[in-house]
Amino acid sequence: DVKVTQSSRYLVKRTGEKVFLECVQDMDHENMFWYRQDPGLGLRLIYFSYDVKMKEKGDIPEGYSVSREKKERFSLILESASTNQTSMYLCASSLVSSGKTQYFGPGTRLLVL
Amino acid sequence: ELKVEQNPLFLSMQEGKNYTIYCNYSTTSDRLYWYRQDPGKSLESLFVLLSNGAVKQEGRLMASLDTKARLSTLHITAAVHDLSATYFCAVGGTGGFKTIFGAGTRLFVKA
Fold this sequence. Notes:
Helix content of chain A: under 10%
Number of helices of chain B: 0
Structural class of chain B: mainly beta
Distance between the termini of chain B: 41 Å
Number of strands of chain B: 11
Distance between the termini of chain A: 37 Å
Largest sheet of chain B: 6 strands, mixed
Largest sheet of chain A: 7 strands, mixed
Strand content of chain B: over 45%
Order of helices and strands of chain A: EEEEEEEEEEE
Oligomer: heterodimer
Strand content of chain A: over 45%
Structural class of chain A: mainly beta
Order of helices and strands of chain B: EEEEEEEEEEE
């Protein structure tokens, strides 16, 4: 079974704090993704990575950065958290081939006060 | 720009009834996915549709794809309470890594 794990299920942070969200997958997938999920908006892609040290901006990258130093690990960084970044964050991974399903982690619910 | 629209966004139905969720997308795509999400849980893959006319079935759920109409449907047959969840369709851009998700359809099946 593919397993995608995220470092925290719930986080509470203060405005201005630097926040790290970590994602680890154990299936040797090349692609990894970070989404945020907000009610009525579906999932919106923040960043994705198709290889170690490679990253591409998604649809809403502002205020976020990412790091992929190892194939199995993809980190999302909020440089200076703001209240409008309160959301559910979902990590996913997939094989590189087109048409392959993304496998999702359990999500991190982040509250920024 | 690829856009994905689902409807309805909320669906309340009685057990035993049939219904269809629609997913329209705006530009050519080579793959379409359906996912299920239970409250407080992550997304679980249901179907991957890769070609025009593709039909896949699992239990009471059947998904189909019409690439000419840029439309996929998720048909629910004889709904049961356990199908209550949010269903997302997602469309991949041609040849790329990105997948665009619809807003989701919140399905509630009344016992």
